[in-house]
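Re: duplicated header lines in exported structure tokens

Our pipeline writes sequence and tokens for each protein into one text file. With two proteins the header for the second block appears twice in some exports. Here is an export where it did not happen, for reference. First protein block:
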Amino acid sequence: MVPGTWVPHDPQKAGGSTSAEGSSDDLSTPWSRGFASEISRLRSRGVTYAQSADFLREIVRRASLRFTDIRDDPRRFFLAHRLLAAHAPAHGPGFWIRFTVQFNLFAGTVVALGGPEHLRLLDAIQAAGELGCFCLTERLAGVNSGLVVNTTATYDSNTKTFILNSKNEGACKNWISQGLTAEWAVVVADLTTCDGKRVGPHGFLVRLRDSSRANKKGGSSLRRGVTVGDMGLKTTGLDLDNAWVRFSDFRVPHASLLDRHGGVDAATGAYLGAAKKPMEMIGQRLFTGRVAVAQAALVFSRTLFLNTKKYSDGKMCAMRGTTPALSDVPQLRALYDEAEKRFARMESFVNKCEKGLCAALVADETPKLAATRAIAVAKIRAVETCVELCHRLKQEVGSYA
């Protein structure tokens, strides 16, 4: 079996065991077993946005997974995502999305773009158990979401602040996961220096609202210049808040600019460029996210097939002779066998992508072109394979799948 893959649907034959928390490989270390125990209390039915956010705050505060592990121990970062994905069949995608927004999109962007002061602030945010969101996508960007940034950030050298504005309705940030509960945000805005020079999208680490403790005292805790609203009802992930966010002359300190790869001189307002463009480094989160999504899809599907097979092994059918179990119906057994082979093949490919990406993250390098293409293919192929196989399983077994 490829190291790190999910246990086959016949774990006894494979020489391993499986549980609701993960595979025998993924649970082979004290850390993984401890983290699996932490997330085992996850609940989703009837859970409010605030309750779901508070559960994540507890995980953040315990710091079993550090915000900086995406750089220092990326294999642990991916493992945590896989362990959490095993709960998705029972609880839906909401909390997994909340988790990856926190550790990948929010914290990961600060790690990639921030200087030493930002990293120290990130440690303080984790110690306080505070949450962040990632304000990139905008309302009228359409299929180019993330590539079109009309939110503006203009530097005012007199006050040494950046002024963030959503210049129109189309520039409002859209579908921002955790946007109704997070205290912090990484906001991606088109930066203009005080002499009117536009230098492109940059990231800003800003506080949106007071801490969750202050928020419980009543009244709005949002900072002046920030307006948020709920995106409305969804068909799944009901424990996850999705927000639209508008900025109106929202002033943030000079230190808010994540300036490792491009900054502004506080006194003169001159732009201080670097070899790497900030937007290229923001794009790094897409690579980690694609691998995490691909692995999560495979873990979800493995878990669904495993649970369904347990049911079909015990479901006796009339007039089946000496092999009465539903699992022995030829077309269902053939599907189980086919799925095992295709899952294993995809897991091997995705694991190779993870290995290469982990090496690049630790070395603080941008993955090579061949690696980025492989990662893009891995996400699409893994998700499409899982959708197809899970749909066929439902057709064979019905709603029990």
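Second protein block, exported in the same file:
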Amino acid sequence: GEYALALSRYKNALDIDPDSHVVHNNVALCAIKLRQWPVAMDHADTVLKLTGGKDAKAWYRRGTVFLETDMSPLAAFYDFKQANALEPSDNNIKR
């Protein structure tokens, strides 16, 4: 896909609405697809702060960064568990 272009456009959208958890989530997704782990982690963390930890996709995306970077498999497990608890019927969130 055109993840690099999408990432650029989502970052521009944050200039207009820096507190949009939806846009931060989309930045995190694009960054994961582009393997830009620090960017993905930063934006997933921002979503969790903006939503008070109530966003399953952000937990899942942050867990993906922990797992893909071997930063902390235990933290990845915790984040995936949080995502599943919030959205147990979401088939995109692996159990």
